[in-house]
Amino acid sequence: MSGKTTITIAGKGGPVRGTVTVPGDKSISHRALMIGSLARGRTEITGLADGADVASTAAALRALGATIETSAGKTSVRCEKLIRPPGAIDAGNSGTTARLLAGVLSAQPFESIITGDRYLKKRPMERVITPLSLMGASISSEGGRLPLRIKGGKLSAIRYRMPVASAQVKSAIALAALFADGDTTIVEPAKTRDHTEIMLKHFGARITTAGAEVTVGGEGAEHLRGTEVEIPGDISSAIFLVAAALINPYPFIRVRNVGVNPTRTGAIDILRKMGADIRLFDQRNWGGEPVEDIVVANIQQGQISKQLNGIEIGGSEVPAAIDELPAIAAVACFARGTTVISGAGELRVKESDRISAMTEGLRNLGAKVEETPDGMRIEGGVPLRGGTVNSAGDHRVAMALAVAATGAEGESRIEDADCVAISFPEFFQTLENLRGGK
Ligand code: S3P
């Protein structure tokens, strides 16, 4: 998503304080809409994410015959049966929409086309084309990129060892497997977010997990029954507010009702390792997903934020923090010593090349950052002067740079800032309110 809006962020000032909520979890929202559309009967969703990515999934499912209506904070989903869409399905900026729907459409008895915006058209799709073709779908593409033309039909069960750690790939196969002729097993190289597994169970599918293996029962779509889904706040949005609190003095923020599924809390572990005081309160369970309030506070009175230290981040820490690494890079600029992020080459194929977009953006704010093939090296403690930076059309880059700018000496401008609407339309207002201590 790209636009012309430039947002001005005031340099460092007072504390970041207040109690807020964030939009519903984007990953869980996509899955609730898709699985709700495959289920028999009505699904009632509370707290669906209000960003543009989830709207792309809703529009795609409507084109496929689903009725999706939102009123008074509740979204109802019903679908008798999926039908051939009247034209190409536009996934917009959303990789999750394109890849997960490719799984669903591979099993339908009609032909369909999935396309997307200019950013999504650059992102790799062969990672879903390969396993779905092994199951029997016929998929053509533009050299492994969108648009995909999918001729769906009867699918065979497979055992598939994924070459990349990707929840989108795992989920595309799992959704296709619901229509296969036997049990499909997916083997992950590293544990990725398991929202599809949890949501499928919640809807009544047969699905089991054993270590790195996920097995989905064949002809499982028959067992899906419409149900109620309550969507927790998105930790990937909350983390930007947590990061802003951590780099400003005398913080106290509480982010209410955040999803803290252990496959998503890697950023909290990393920030704690850097020395941050982040606490979780009031554990609850929403349809199999753990939910808590996140609190960042300086418990010792009369002190500014605790000094954070630079650390090394890599290996299995990466998948559980993949979307939060831009926020962590922003925090690392304010830590003592060097932070090295490695093993994160996947960042290069996100909504933008996040390694190069974050390196350039943080440098333009005055930070000392080096780009490496699979990560970055950030010298902490170099004062940021502020400056003009560009989001590269990527929501998480826009938010991470805005967070870094809150700790800079002077004012900064974030160009092409509209893209925050992908996942967190109220981000700038929320940040402003917290900086005003409201
Ligand atoms: C997502 C999985 C991750 C993540 C993306 C959402 C999902 O992508 O980066 O924002 O909802 O399954 P990959 O599967 O490409 O790692």
Question: How does this model look, in words?
Answer:
With 438 residues, the chain is an alpha/beta fold. Helices cover 28% and strands 24% of the residues. It is built from 12 helices and 23 strands. Strands 2-15-17-16 form a 4-stranded mixed β-sheet. The protein has a 4-stranded mixed β-sheet with strand order 4-5-3-14. Strand 22 (388-390), helix 11 and strand 23 (412-415) form a beta-alpha-beta unit. The longest helix is centred in the first third of the chain and has 13 residues, at 26-38. It is globular, with a radius of gyration of 21 Å. Shikimate-3-phosphate is lined by residues 27, 96, 166-168, 171, 193, 322-323, 346. Shikimate-3-phosphate (S3P) is lined by residues 27, 96, 166-168, 171, 193, 322-323, 346.
Main sheet record:
4 strands, mixed
Q: Can you tell me the residue ranges where pLDDT is under 50 for at least 5 consecutive residues? A: none
The number of helical runs is 12
Bound molecules: shikimate-3-phosphate
- Which band does the percent of strand residues land in? 15-25%
The dominant shape is: globular
Mean pLDDT: 96
Q: Assign a percent range to the helix content.
A: 25-40%
- Using the CA coordinates, give the radius of gyration: 21 Å
Give the assembly state of these chains: single chain
Secondary structural class? alpha/beta
Kindly, what is the distance between the CA atoms of the first and last residues, rounded to a whole number of angstroms? 30 Å
Count all strands and give the number: 23
Strand order of the main beta sheet, please? 2-15-17-16
